[in-house]
Design the sequence.
C-alpha cells in the first residue's frame, strides 16, 4: 500500500530488484475494491500462473471492509477475478492463501452485523479464479459462528492449513477462541460440521507447522496448553486418521515468544525438527525434536524480532529476519 490509499502489485526482476512490469493498481482493476479500508497482510500464493492476494481490514473492525481473495493473471491476458465475504470476515492470518489438490483454502475472521452466515468465522475452499460455490461441501463454520462474531473471536488467526494423514484429507485452523477447527477438505460440511476442540488457553495467532513423523502427523503452534502444566510456548498435537480424526496433545515445550514455527525433515520423517523464533520474547532461535518436543538447539540472543516471524530454510541454512539484521545458521 502506498500513500494516497493505493494498493499496487509490482513484478520485480530477480537479478537487480528493478520493476519489470507496470504495477497493477488494485482498486482500478477490481470492481468494488476500496483501497482505503482494505489491508494486505497475509502471504500470497502463485498457482498455475495466477497470483492470489488476500485482504482484511485496514483498521481492524472499522469501515465497510470484507475478506477478499483476488486472482491476478501473471501473463496479463485475463482481468482479475475476485471473491469477498460479507461485511467483515477479514483474511489476515500471516499464512494467507494455501493451495492443495487444485483448490485454494483460506480462513476468515468475524463478520459484522450479519444475521445470516456470509463467509465469516470459516474455512473456505475456493476454486481457481478464485470462485466460491457456497455449497456446504466447500466451507466449514462452527455452529456458534454468530457468538464468535459478536465477541470478535476470529477462528482464522492461524490461517488454513491443509494436510494429509494416511488416506485422510484434512484442513485446519486455530483461532482466538483457543480451539482447533478441523474438517475433511474433500467435503467441509457447512455450518456445525467438522470438529472444534479446545487446545489452548487463549488465542492462537500464528500459523502452525505440520510434519509427518514415524509416530504420526504432528501439528505444532505457539500457545499455552492446559494439558502441559509447567511448560508453555509451543504445543504439538498428534492427528490420527479416522472419522472423525483423533486429536491428542503430543507434547509441550517452553519457548518465550510469538514466532511462527516451521518443520524440517530428512524426507522420511526421521530426525524431524520444529524451528521457532522467540519473537518479541527471548529473541532466540529454537529447535526441538518433532517427536518429543525435547530441545535440540537454542541460539544466542538475536536483535529485535517482530511477532509472527517465521524462519526459512534454504541450501543447508536456517534464516531469521530481524528488524535491523538477517541471521543465518548453518545446520551441521
Sequence:
Amino acid at each position: 500500500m502506498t500513500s494516497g490509499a493505493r494498493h499496487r502489485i509490482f513484478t520485480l526482476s530477480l537479478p537487480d530488484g528493478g520493476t519489470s512490469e507496470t504495477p497493477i493498481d488494485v482498486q482500478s482493476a477490481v470492481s468494488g475494491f476500496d483501497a482505503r479500508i482494505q489491508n494486505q497482510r497475509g502471504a500470497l500464493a502463485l498457482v498455475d500462473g495466477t497470483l492470489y492476494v488476500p485482504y482484511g481490514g485496514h483498521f481492524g473492525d472499522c469501515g465497510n471492509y470484507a475478506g477478499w481473495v483476488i486472482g491476478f493473471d501473471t501473463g496479463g491476458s485475463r482481468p482479475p477475478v475476485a471473491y469477498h465475504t460479507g461485511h467483515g470476515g477479514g483474511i489476515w492470518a500471516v499464512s494467507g492463501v494455501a493451495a492443495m489438490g487444485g483448490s485454494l483454502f483460506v480462513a476468515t475472521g468475524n463478520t459484522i452485523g450479519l444475521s445470516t452466515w456470509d463467509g465469516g468465522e470459516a474455512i473456505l475452499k475456493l476454486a481457481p479464479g478464485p470462485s466460491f460455490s457456497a455449497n456446504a461441501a466447500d466451507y466449514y463454520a462452527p455452529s456458534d459462528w454468530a457468538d464468535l462474531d459478536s465477541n470478535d473471536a476470529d477462528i482464522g488467526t492461524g490461517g488454513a492449513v491443509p494436510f494429509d494423514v494416511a488416506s485422510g484429507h484434512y484442513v485446519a485452523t486455530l483461532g482466538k477462541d483457543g480451539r482447533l477447527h478441523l474438517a475433511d477438505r474433500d467435503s467441509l460440511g457447512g455450518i456445525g460440521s467438522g470438529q472444534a476442540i479446545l487446545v489452548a488457553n487463549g488465542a492462537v495467532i500464528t500459523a502452525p507447522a505440520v510434519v509427518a513423523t514415524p509416530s504420526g502427523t504432528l501439528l505444532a503452534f505457539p500457545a499455552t496448553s492446559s494439558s502441559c502444566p509447567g511448560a508453555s510456548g509451543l504445543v504439538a498435537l498428534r492427528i490420527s486418521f479416522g472419522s472423525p480424526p483423533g486429536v491428542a496433545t503430543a507434547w509441550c515445550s517452553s519457548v518465550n515468544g510469538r514466532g511462527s514455527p516451521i518443520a524440517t525433515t530428512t524426507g522420511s520423517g526421521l530426525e524431524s525438527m520444529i524451528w521457532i523464533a522467540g519473537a518479541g520474547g527471548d529473541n532466540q532461535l529454537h529447535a526441538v525434536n518433532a517427536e518429543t518436543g525435547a530441545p535440540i538447539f537454542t541460539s544466542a540472543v538475536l536483535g529485535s524480532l517482530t511477532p509472527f516471524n517465521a524462519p526459512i530454510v534454504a541450501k543447508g541454512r536456517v534464516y531469521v529476519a530481524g528488524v535491523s539484521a538477517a541471521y543465518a545458521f548453518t545446520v551441521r
Observations:
- Residues 176 and 203 are 4 Å apart (CA to CA).
- The radius of gyration is 20 Å.
